Amino acid sequence: MELIYLNTVWVVIAAVMVLFMEGGFSLLEAGFVRTKNAVNVTMKIFVDLTIGALAFWLIGFGIMFGRDAFGFIGTNLFGSADKIALSIELPSMAFVLFQMGFAVACVSIISGAVAERMSFKAYIVTAALICILIYPLSGHWIWNSEGWLAKLGMKDFAGSATIHAVGGCAAFAMAKLLGSRKGRFNTDGSVNVFAPSNIPLASAGAFILWFGWFGFNAGSTLDASSSNLSSIALNTMLAGASGGTMALLLTMKKFGKADPSMTINGILSGLVAITAGCAFVSQGSAIIIGAISGVIVIYATLFIDNVKVDDPVGAVAVHGFNGVFGTIAVGLFDSSEGLFTTGEFSLFLVQLLGAVVVIGWGLIGGAFIAKVCEKTVGFRATEREEEEGLDMSYHGIPAYNELERFADLPTSLFNFEETTGVTIKSSATKEKERKVV
Amino acid sequence: MKKVEAIIRPERLTETIKSLKMIGVTGFTVSQSVGRGKQKDTQGVYRGKNYQVTLHPKVKMEIVLSDYLVEATIKAIIKSAQTGENGDGKIYVYPILEAYNIRTGTIDFDIDDLVDNEG
User: Fold this and answer.
1) Which residue of A60, A200, A367, B96 lies most exposed, with the fewest beta carbons within 10 A?
2) How much is the ipTM here?
3) May I ask the CATH class of domain B2-114?
């Protein structure tokens, strides 16, 4: 009886930690994009938290956790998410709030990859569609106990596949179809670096994401009395640290400089990769998984540039590639049935199948959203809007008034004639007068 | 010796530098600036109030050149910075009395040495 109170407190705190990660996404992206688009990426995160959250509560939750049909889709709980019957000692409302944080995180992954060039209306459509259909459907396959991948025995503890791989693959498809930012690639295929606006701001975002990740992973126990809780938290810490370590050292060796944005992405990659396995692997395995993901992120980033897909914040390399890797890594390092730890093949094959399915579904989902946007509100910002910056074009306000555009000058300075009644000589009269003289 | 001062749209800067490079002009100073001419005010919104951004962000390029390069430079700037709409900017040409090279500490009679000596 007392456990339910403790669980309520733990899961609600974990849920708000997951929701706080939105702040991390927002600062991370604002720091990585150019100054003229920083308000736009922030506003997109607000779309996730507002429209995305409501869409998930209204429809997405039912598709994900509702009564199963054919192992494929949920069919009830629409608009009444709290009616779900849980077999654990936890009020259903806490569970709904926690799942809402996950759905919102899935959209935020995409927001980074499409930054600086997507129409704002199209993003609203995207957030709604991800939360209504794309994320919940594959989530149903993996996390609903009746889902077809779950029945095969697929293990995804906190969502490397369900959240990160789906989000990352959808992000790849959308970034590809959206095209690159103007001037990103030269005709000979080389890449122009668009210097990020504010690395300390992006770092603050990374710190918040790291903090929130403990709620993300350890909260997924949904049980404060779980003896596993502390080992999950420790695994999360270790994988993030080793991902960051590898990225830091490898960039020093490969590029001659310790690259801050790659270090940030290395840390996030470690965290993404351990998300699926944090409850199933040993601490040593967590460090190995993190370290591999720190290497993957660097080569994935270079690969994405090579295939001419423009991903301003590296979301595909971090969430897509390492979400897939983390899913497969469970099959390799799981302490009871992993390939490397016990020599058993069956879990590895299931994880591999699951990874292929989420890659396919993510790509299809992203392409589907792109088509819907093109047919309805338009997908890409116009060239003029992109050049001016999406902040002024869509939101009417710059992020930093760093040029001091003197917006506080009274308008009367410029419509002098209307406000004072004094007529200013036109250039034609001036010309005439000059000739007379 | 002349100084060409060009005030252009920020988004045309890359193109402009490219075409200057093509005619061998590789040394210049660039600064961010704001100003206004005939370009329409940008409409902003802040907490439900409309406001006008009356001064537009521009980029100012200052290029000191030998006389014979001035015409080609102006042509190159116009070609690459022109969009045909209000707000494309202005070019001013000034005479330069003297130019010194700080590294060597000598008078730079031959300003061409500042030009096209990259690499």
Assistant:
1) A200
2) 0.78
3) alpha beta
